[in-house]
Design a protein that fits this description.
By secondary structure, the chain is of the alpha+beta class. The chain is about 40% helix and about 20% strand. It has a five-stranded mixed β-sheet with strand order 3-2-1-4-5. Strand 1 and strand 2 form a beta hairpin.
Length: about 140
């Protein structure tokens, strides 16, 4: 059974988490410094989250998040099910293995994404805490 019942729940959980870390002193700053536009295209349910670290972010943030389709041309496009993304943010999915197995597909400069892995390590603790905070403790794995 899918973790998320609809796109709105993906945006609430994963999109909301991304928005929360836009000003994170460690993660946010390193993602912002990447200068990349990274688009996550999810299925089951269909949803799109774009991380824009190329254009000027809102004051107090290192990057901006766009939920749903947008006109930005991504430098990197990551495609996967929303369940794989959810498990990734718990540290339960190895990016390199998922790419090799086809659980995730990437278009664009893969080394740029791999360089961000150390920067997002705090997410593995922050994402479960965020879900509990927004009343989605049932999603914690």
């Amino acid at each position: 059974m899918a973790t998320f019942k609809d796109a709105a729940e993906v945006y609430q959980c994963i999109g909301g988490f991304f928005k929360m870390v836009t000003d994170h002193p460690e993660m946010g700053e390193k993602i912002g410094a990447s200068g990349l536009i990274i688009q996550f295209v999810y299925s089951e349910p269909d949803s799109i989250i774009t991380v824009d670290a190329k254009n000027p972010p809102p004051k107090g943030s290192f990057f901006r998040i766009i939920e749903g389709p947008c006109d930005l041309k991504p430098d990197v496009k990551m495609t996967m099910t929303a369940d794989i993304a959810h498990r990734f943010w718990f540290g339960k999915v190895n990016l390199v293995q998922a790419l090799a197995k086809g659980d995730m597909k990437a278009q664009g400069p893969i080394p740029s994404i791999l360089k961000l892995l150390p920067a997002i390590k705090p997410a593995y603790t922050l994402y479960p805490e965020y879900l509990k905070k927004i009343g989605k403790a049932d999603k914690v794995i």
